[in-house]
Every structure is written in structure tokens, then in C-alpha cells.
């Protein structure tokens, strides 16, 4: 018997919710953070280490995996879960956003988008139908509609036309996805910073009917204030009994503010990418371990953190291995950052369940104001 996708909300505090997304490959505690595993790996992390940080689900990318190793090849090899040795849920982005942000040679039409690979320059095409087929071949548990995310700033006409195209593509995505018990399809709201266009998008998506709803078109340079301005109304435009996923977000304080406004799921490359550059994200704010002041500091990054980096190594050691460009430097800081993100999510879940989110958020900001340690 295939376990069907479902979402149960166990607690609320204001607009914030905490609950569980049930999937055929396991449960996802929400609010949830999804580490990004773009090319079938969360960079510098073994999958068992990613699980040890507390992650219940990973994100993969249609765009990267269709170029290398290829969707049909991945299917022949048993699918993405077997390929990368991660047997829990995987959500895959649908590729449109990555095409627009990673390629320059491309042609956008009603049918879809033609582009050249940033890997080897070969020609490729993505459409709602092909994106659904690729995500099926990968074996993704949560599939994202194929959409268009307009670059900001853009005038209202461009935003409106792009949103309407994305809604036509959402219809085609749903049609192509078919009825796949045990798998979920999420719609993606567009509409830029325009409340009425986002309302129209939400209504159209709800009429088509999806297992979850993403808030797209944000974290594209609009800044936190404008993003929170949209989040003051956008989650409420979406069905309240389905998961709400804010794509590409974000910094710790972005996530806290978005959870307060009713968002349930997040993904961002920040903790892994910044970890590889020597930036440690901690409850007191960011620390750049390459700074000379850490060269002889015997203390851990964060004395209150239980991750392997903070348990077994000094700042001086982390400073050393970063300066020496040792591979372990990326491993340890990525592990720390992902551990910190999962601790933050666990803290948010517990605070919402206890009806104590305001106090949690106040303490979150107070610790960061206390500054570096
Ligand atoms: N380090 C680092 C770092 C780099 C980039 C970002 C911003 C990511 N923002 C973002 N990802 C997105 C993916 C998306 N996918 C789709 N299918 N649609 C979107 O509207 C969309 C919007 C997004 N906005 C955040 C942190
Ligand atoms: Zn740590």
C-alpha cells in the first residue's frame, strides 16, 4: 500500500504553524529547512552526515541533473535516491529558474525554453511536459511545477504577463504530472511584489489543485523589507491546509520572519555555500573564520553548539585548515552551518508548539545583537 502525501498541522502561534508533511519516503517536520543537493550531493557532506544534522528532506535540481548525468541515465541507474544514497524525501526544483539564472543563450516561448548547457554548450529544451518527465525519471517525491521567475526590477506589465504564462504552465504541469500516488506536485505562486497579481495567481493555482503551494518570484534581489511585505499577505492567499514553501530563502533572520508569517518549508544554498568560503553562521551572527583574529583562538566556534566542528576543533584549527585550503575545512563549516539551521528550525517548531514564538524570536534577535563572541 503506497502511503499518500498529506500534511497535518499540530500547533499554531499567530500565523505560524508547526506540523508534519507525510510522504511515501518519510515524514518532514515543519517548519522545515531543505539542504540543497544540486548535483546529487550536498557539497562536502556525506548523506549520513546531512541526516545527522537533522534534515528530513533534500532539494535537487532538474536543470543540473538533466545536463549531467542526464535524466534517462539516472532512471537506468535506479533513480536519484539510490544514486546519491539518500532514502528519505527529495524535492526537486523544476529547472526554469536555474535556466534563467545560469544560462545566457536561451529562447523563451509559450512552449517552453530552449537553452545551451553551461557545462558543455549543448542545446537543451525544458517545457512543463519535459520538466515533469525529468522529475519522474529522477524519482522525486515532491515535484515543482515548471514556471517562469521574472528578474526584478520589472514593470507591472512584465510581471503580469510572466505570471499568466506560469499559470498556463502550471495547468500543463498538472496535466503532464498525472495521478501519481505517493508523489506530490506543488504549484508556484508568482506575481512579483503586486498583491493583486499574487492573489490572482493563488486563486488560479487553487482552482487547478496542488498538494502544496510555493511562493516563487522572491529572494531575487528585492531585499528583506520588500520580501516581508509580500509575506505579510501571500501565505494567507494560499490554502491554509496545505504546505507553503518559500523558494530560495534564506538567511536565518529571513527564515524566522517568514515562519512568523506562515511559511512551512525553506531551501537555500547559503549555509553550504558560505560554509565553503569560511563563513560560520551562529546564534550570535556570522563569523569569518579566515579573519586573522582567529589564528590562535583555542575556543570552539560556538561553545553551545554540539556539531563535530564545535565539539572537536578550535577556531585556530578551522582558521588553519581554511588558510591551507584543506578539504576538511569545507566539511566542518558546512556541517556546522547545516547543524545550526536545523537547530534553528527545531527551536522554531518547539516554540510554535508551546505558543511561545514571540519570546523565541525576541531571544533570537537579542543574541545576534549581543554581537560576535
Ligand atoms: N549563497 C547564496 C544564495 C544564493 C542565491 C539565493 C537566492 C535564491 N533565490 C531564489 N531561488 C529560487 C528558486 C525558484 N525556483 C522556481 N521554480 N521558481 C521561483 O520563483 C524561484 C525563486 C527563487 N528565488 C540565496 C542565497
Ligand atoms: Zn557547530
Task: Give an overview of the whole structure.
The chain has 16 helices and 16 strands. The longest helix has 27 residues, at 327-353. The protein is 43% helix and 19% strand. The radius of gyration is 20 Å and the shape is globular. β11, α8 and β12 form a beta-alpha-beta unit. The chain has 373 residues and is an alpha/beta fold. The strands form four sheets. The chain has an eight-stranded parallel beta sheet with strand order 4-14-13-12-11-10-6-5. The chain binds the ligand N#Cc1ccc(CCNc2nc3cc4nc(N)[nH]c(=O)c4cc3[nH]2)cc1 and zinc ion. Zinc ion (ZN) binds next to α13 and α15.
Q: How much of the sequence is in beta strands?
A: 15-25%
Q: Residue share in helices?
A: 40-55%
Helix/strand/pairing category = alpha/beta
Global outline:
globular
Molecules bound to protein = ligand 2YX, zinc ion
What distance separates the N and C termini?
Answer: 52 Å
**Annotation, overall tally of beta strands:** 16
Sequence-ordered SSE layout with sheet pairings:
Layout: E1 6-13, E2 16-23, E3 26-30, E4 32-34, H1 47-52, E5 58-61, H2 62-67, H3 71-76, H4 80-84, E6 90-93, H5 96-102, E7 106-108, E8 113-116, E9 123-126, H6 128-138, E10 142-144, H7 156-177, E11 184-189, H8 195-208, E12 212-215, H9 224-231, H10 234-237, E13 244-246, H11 252-260, E14 265-267, H12 270-276, E15 279-282, E16 285-288, H13 308-312, H14 315-323, H15 327-353, H16 357-369
Parallel strand pairs: 4-14, 5-6, 6-10, 10-11, 11-12, 12-13, 13-14
Antiparallel strand pairs: 1-2, 2-3, 7-8, 8-9, 15-16
Bound molecules: the ligand N#Cc1ccc(CCNc2nc3cc4nc(N)[nH]c(=O)c4cc3[nH]2)cc1 and zinc ion.
The ligand N#Cc1ccc(CCNc2nc3cc4nc(N)[nH]c(=O)c4cc3[nH]2)cc1 binds next to helix 5 and helix 12.
Amino acid at each position: 500500500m503506497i502511503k499518500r502525501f498529506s500534511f497535518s498541522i499540530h500547533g499554531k502561534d499567530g500565523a505560524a504553524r508547526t506540523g508534519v508533511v507525510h510522504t511515501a519516503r518519510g515524514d518532514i517536520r515543519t517548519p522545515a529547512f531543505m539542504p540543497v543537493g544540486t548535483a546529487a550531493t550536498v557539497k562536502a557532506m556525506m548523506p549520513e552526515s546531512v541526516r545527522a544534522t537533522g534534515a528530513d528532506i533534500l532539494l535537487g535540481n532538474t536543470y543540473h541533473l538533466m545536463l549531467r548525468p542526464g535524466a534517462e541515465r539516472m532512471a537506468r541507474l535506479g533513480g536519484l535516491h539510490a544514486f546519491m544514497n539518500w532514502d528519505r524525501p527529495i524535492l526537486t526544483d523544476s529547472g526554469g529558474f536555474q535556466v534563467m539564472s545560469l544560462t545566457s543563450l536561451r529562447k523563451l516561448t509559450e512552449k517552453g525554453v530552449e537553452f545551451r548547457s553551461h557545462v558543455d554548450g549543448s542545446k537543451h529544451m525544458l517545457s512543463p511536459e519535459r520538466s515533469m518527465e525529468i522529475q519522474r525519471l529522477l524519482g522525486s517525491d515532491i515535484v515543482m511545477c515548471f514556471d517562469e521567475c521574472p528578474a526584478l526590477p520589472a514593470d507591472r506589465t512584465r510581471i503580469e504577463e510572466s505570471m499568466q504564462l506560469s499559470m498556463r504552465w502550471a495547468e500543463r504541469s498538472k496535466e503532464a504530472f498525472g495521478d501519481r500516488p505517493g508523489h506530490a506536485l506543488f504549484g508556484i505562486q508568482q506575481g512579483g511584489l503586486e498583491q493583486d497579481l499574487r492573489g490572482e495567481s493563488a486563486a488560479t493555482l487553487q482552482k487547478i489543485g496542488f498538494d502544496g503551494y510555493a511562493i516563487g518570484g522572491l529572494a531575487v534581489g528585492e531585499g528583506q523589507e520588500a520580501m516581508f511585505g509580500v509575506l505579510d499577505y501571500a501565505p494567507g492567499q494560499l490554502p491554509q491546509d496545505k504546505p507553503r514553501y518559500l523558494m530560495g530563502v534564506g538567511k536565518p533572520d529571513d527564515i524566522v520572519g517568514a515562519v512568523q508569517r506562515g511559511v512551512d518549508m525553506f531551501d537555500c544554498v547559503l549555509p553550504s555555500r558560505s560554509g565553503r568560503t569560511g563563513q560560520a553562521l551562529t546564534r550570535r551572527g556570522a563569523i569569518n573564520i579566515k579573519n586573522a583574529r582567529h589564528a590562535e583562538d583555542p575556543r570552539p566556534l560556538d561553545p553551545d553548539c554540539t556539531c563535530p566542528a564545535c565539539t572537536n576543533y578550535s577556531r585556530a584549527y578551522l582558521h588553519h585548515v581554511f588558510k591551507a585550503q584543506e578539504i576538511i575545512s569545507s566539511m566542518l563549516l558546512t556541517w556546522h552551518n547545516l547543524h545550526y539551521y536545523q537547530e534553528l528550525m527545531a527551536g522554531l517548531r518547539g516554540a510554535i508548539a508551546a505558543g511561545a514564538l514571540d519570546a523565541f524570536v525576541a531571544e533570537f534577535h537579542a543574541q545576534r545583537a549581543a554581537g560576535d563572541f
